[in-house]
Amino acid sequence: MRLATIILDSADPAKLAEFYTAATGWQPSYTDDTFVFIGDSGSVRLGFQRVADYQGPGWPDDRKHAHLDFTVPDVDQAVTTLVGLGARKPDFQPGKEDWTVLADPEGHLFCLSKGE
Q: What is the pTM of this model?
């Protein structure tokens, strides 16, 4: 088995894909009225699936199901950039100096930590 795609439920897949395209530099590889995929087939892609009446997870909330982890060279700079693109930095930050929690424009959580 090889993990090919992580799909996030979404109210507006095209808009959410725009956020992650700007954040990652990955380009759209497939688009229709229900799905948008970004990234190429040589790596794990991100997909966004339209779900009627979608509401993002709360934070902090034990019922969240999953989140994405990204490494960046400079966490503070990445936070500033991503907030400028529409992400939100919740008040609750359990990672202290190890990671920073953000929420994308639809509320999906992701973490940033220092890496290559």
A: 0.89
Predicted confidence at residue 45, as pLDDT, reads: 95
**Average of per-residue pLDDT across 55-76:** 86
Q: How far is CA 87 from CA 4, 40, 49, in A?
A: 25, 24, 19
**CA-based angle 14:15:19, to the nearest 5?**
115
DSSP code, position 5: E
Report yes or no: 102 and 111 within 8 Å, Cβ to Cβ.
yes
Place of tokens 């930095």: 89
Please provide the DSSP assignment of 64-113 as one string: ----EEEEES-HHHHHHHHHHHT-B--S--TTTTS-EEEE-TTS-EEEEE
| Tokens describing residue 40 | 């190429």
Residue whose C-alpha is closest to residue 72's, from 81, 64, 85, 59: 81
